[in-house]
Amino acid sequence: ALFSETTSNTMRPMDFIQRLSPFYVAAWTEAVAMRGTLAPFVYAWEPTGITAVIGLAQDVEREIYIEALAKGSVALLRRASGGGAVLLTSGMLCFGVMAPPAAAGNSIRQAYQRLLEPVIDALRGLGVAARLAGVSDIAVSLSGGDMAAASRDGETLYKIAGCAQMRKRHAILVHGVLLLDADIALFSRYLRYPSEAPNYRSGRSHEEFCRNISAVLGRKILPPEMAQILCAEAQRRGWQWRQIPSCLDAEAEALYHQKYLCEGWHWRRERNSNLPAIPPPPLPLAFDKDEVSIR
User: Fold this and answer.
1) Tens digits of residue pLDDT in 120-148
2) What is the pTM of this model?
3) What does each C-alpha distance from 222 to 21, 69, 88, 212, 228 come to in angstroms?
């Protein structure tokens, strides 16, 4: 059955954010996308720990510093959507927008344009002059940029969010990561320069290319505040705001155990025995409210 659960429009601010394992959320989002959705909805969450996440078709050794992950006890996750590698850590807000294919448009590019509109409008309402850049980034232009970059009208664009897309028969998912107050210096420790990069990056390192939204605003913004702003924008459009459930259903639980807990899925082959072992996925816990569990 297509997913059509409704949610309340009277959530308290503390209800807007959950701290969750990326492995748990990966299983939940894929299960929901496979079932499909009757109407657009938005969700958000804050990652626990540090996790290196790669796109569906990426090669681990090309995108990630494997030895650094092992040394730092950083987990590795292959998601079921495209896009490039990201590092999930504190100071970020992960979000997703899922919609029926008819609402998302006829192409990958159109789906990014349509489904990222509430995110970009929420940022603009906050005072961030956000825009789509490349195919799937959200970027901002900062005056007096210190790096020469190939960008529109001579502006220098800085990435504040990276996004990816999952396309199923009855649902299109665009999800991403907003950099709020993250330790961007960690990126170069664990992530190589990407195998594919948008033209506007112009060879810049992770530190030169990425910016925190807090730095853009000149004040610190935390995940609960950003989630509340995003929720308000979604509901202004008549879209649902959905909390990730505290217990996985049977389909999501099967994905969690049979896919996302399996090293073979993340490596897409047997790991080279000469490479160090990556820590196993952490248990799926939530800390802000109830403990998230597997039924």
Assistant:
1) 999 999 999 999 999 999 999 986 443 33
2) 0.88
3) 18, 26, 15, 11, 10
